[in-house]
Design brief:
The complex is a heterodimer of chains A (357) and B (275).
Chain A lengths: L1 E10 L2 E10 L4 E5 L6 H9 L6 E6 L2 E2 L10 E4 L11 H11 L4 H14 L15 H13 L5 E5 L10 H13 L3 E6 L2 H7 L2 E6 L2 E6 L1 H6 L4 H6 L4 E10 L2 E5 L5 E4 L6 E7 L5 E3 L9 E12 L3 E7 L3 E7 H6 L7 E6 L4 E5 L8
Parallel strand pairs in A: 3-8, 3-9, 6-7, 7-8
Antiparallel strand pairs in A: 1-2, 1-4, 4-5, 9-10, 11-12, 11-14, 12-13, 14-20, 15-19, 16-17, 16-19, 17-18
Helix pairs in contact in A: 2-3, 2-4, 3-4
Chain B lengths: L1 H5 L5 H27 L3 H8 L2 H34 L5 H13 L2 H12 L4 H8 L8 H25 L3 H9 L4 H29 L3 H6 L6 H12 L1 H34 L6
Helix pairs in contact in B: 3-13, 4-8, 4-10, 5-8, 6-8, 8-10, 9-10, 10-13, 12-13
The chains are: A alpha+beta (357), B mainly alpha (275).
Chain lengths: 357, 275
Amino acid sequence: MLKLENIRKKFGAFALSGISLEVPDGEYFVLLGRSGSGKTCLLELIAGLNTPDSGTVRIDGQNMTNSKIQDRPVGLVFQDFAIFPNMTVYGNIAYPLRSKGMKKDEIAGKVKSIAAEMDISILLSRYPQYLSSGELQRVALARTLVLSPRLLLLDEPMSSVDASLKDDIRKVLRRINRSGLTVIHVTHDYREAVSLAGRVGVIHAGTIVQEGTPESVFGRPASRFVARYAGIKNFFNVRLRKEGDDWKAIGDRNITFRVDGSGFTGGGLMIVRSENITINDNEPFPRADNCFRGVIREIFPSEYGMEITVDAGMLFVADLSFSDFRKLKGREASQVWISFPGEAAVVIDGSNDSETS
Amino acid sequence: MGFSREQPVRGSLFSLIMLILSSLVLLFILAPLAGIFFETSGSDLLETANDREVRDSIWLTLLVAFSATFLFAFAAIPLAWIMARKEFPLKGLVQGLIDLPVVIPHTAAGIAVLGFISRDGFLGSIADSAGLSLINNPAGIALAMAFVSIPFLINSARDGFASVPVRLEKAALTLGASHTRVFFTISLPLAWKSIMTGFVMMFARGMSEFGAVVIVAYHPMTAPVLIYERFSSFGLDYARPVSVLFIIVALAVFILLRLISLKKKESHITPDAET
């Protein structure tokens, strides 16, 4: 469907330096990166608002690197939707059809059917100033989809939508994708990737640093940067050693962890997802793999429960659900036991680390 | 007073000073205008309104100023768009050039325009070969008016175009619109208010122009030239009623233009608004 080959583009102090990417037909691809990482620029290159300095953009096998915007079967929805304020919702959705020189009644038919599909029929005569963010999002999607593009590009589609409407938009996006449309969705929020993506790419400093299914990228991040992006809070610099069939990771103060095989020895980075760490008031029995005694330093409410920081010689962050937290007697300054299974610890080669901190 | 209601009385010395100084400026603008109105009797005004020469000069002024603004708008608006959207070398110099007519003395501007349209000037020789003389001709007056007033339209329209979000234009492009269609359906309608403001300002500035116009054409007489002529030949009492009449007409026209321009903006939107 879409194939990017070694795209390079310099703009100001920043550059896309060799982006290669393949998105097959019907896939929901989420491109994850910080603001300013070149995500929007990449979308503009695909849509044709910009041309790369070098590299090729192929759509359905056809080289479209320098094709006119109007010739590309691509729809782009902007971050703040870019609804034309001088037109009604009807005028906005009809706009691309009028650009094509379609007949009036044909336009009316198409607008009405897409409006019904997006559930905005009653908004058609309204001006955008009077719409909510969720409604604007639907109008923007309708306006783009009315041309039946082959590829839908979404630039941070959730960031300008009220939190209460996000679920709603997620459903709409899933439905659009399920109807067969290929989607590339750009975001800085890994949770959107988790909930929507068939495949994820993480973009950093102008290149895609890791790509794969959400499980593989978030489960086995290739670098500290990706791990941060996947919402991981526990990073430990370790030295790796093989003892018989077991792999040991030795951290600060010679704290030793049992980990799954890493395939390399020497310096590395050990990552543990905070939801994989359990906290007990007493020493668990039978004793788990990596079990340490520590003191609770901080307790914060988080999105899904409580985030608890435990000092066990090294600082561990654990996410507990509300019900697990209620069962726990330990509070700040209490002594507790933390543990996590060896397979929950992911070890990555320190030399892969693109972020120094 | 609105001022003291929002702020405690004790802290109002600052507000008081600001208020007094502001009032002084407003008074300075209002007092001479009020004076000229009070000192003109209704019968004088009526008589002046029936004076053929006065009526003709006011009509001529309105018509020529409007035509000049209207015709030059066709080139000024594209220039404004380029200044707002394109980057090119020496752009600052071009902007300086656009502002130049505002800063040079208007009599000097008149001399420059006169040289341009006189029989051995560039435009004058072209007109001459067509059997036309631009000197002492409404067309010459229009050129003089346009020369000194066009920066107002260009700059206001430029600000208007610059305030249109680029991503709206980008969105329109991705929706299959050509650059021309984007200009006419997005950029122009969204910049319309600023363009109309510039239009009214250019028109007003052109209409009131004396220095450049009097050098290019003493006859046919525009209203400012007539006022000057009445003043220098007959004195203040004769120049006053003409001035008052001209001010009244000018104000009426501005109010009318404002109303039309706002209406026009709305009607510009409606073609896309049917359901």
